[in-house]
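Justification of computing resources. Each target in the renewal requires a structure prediction run like the one illustrated here; the chain below, 223 residues long, is used simply to show the kind of job we budget for.
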Amino acid sequence: MGSIFNMFGPSPIRPIEQHIYKAYQCAKQLLPFFEAALTQDWKTASDIKDKIAALEKEADVIKRDLRLHLPTGLFLPVSRTDLLELLSAQDKIANRSEDIAELVLSRNMILPDALADVFMPFLSCSLSASKQACKAINELDELLESGFRGSEVKIVEEMIVTLDNIEHESDEKLSDIRQRIFHFEKDMPAIDVMFLYKLVQWVGDLADHAQTVGSRLQILIAR
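Resulting structure tokens:
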């Protein structure tokens, strides 16, 4: 199927895979970003934020080019609408990563000591979801070659199940952090509490968006 398709136009699969890689790289930079922010090394944090922004722009270029040149003809092996929705889901990972970095840096946010032992594991969990989504999307070439049948489908479906489990773990960690914030929020300025809740929700969004990528991929397989 892939060989026949390539005779009639450029495959959209490679740009999809390139895009999710860029999106994951955006998210991945949040680990060193928060390591710097937690020690109030705002110069390093700013440099990493700029790197995230550059990666997000690179992802946008891939997204824009794919949208403009995505084939509409008979030989597109999967639904054009499904591909565009998959691309949109991937894009949210990159966008949210940049949002998080900008929020923390713009306010020089310092996490309360009560969150010190739980925030980084929570972040790592959400980043693991983004990484798993990237791994699953990287199987699109093999799915195309197999005609979306056989053992390759089972491999990808297992990846998606793992992704769902990671997202569920992220939700549990988010719930725990919210409970912790609730217990000490009365001792903080209201505006700081509001932005703290927003921050942890946005970190949780990374896992949610990654799960959506997996769900869109599952729809491609099902159809």
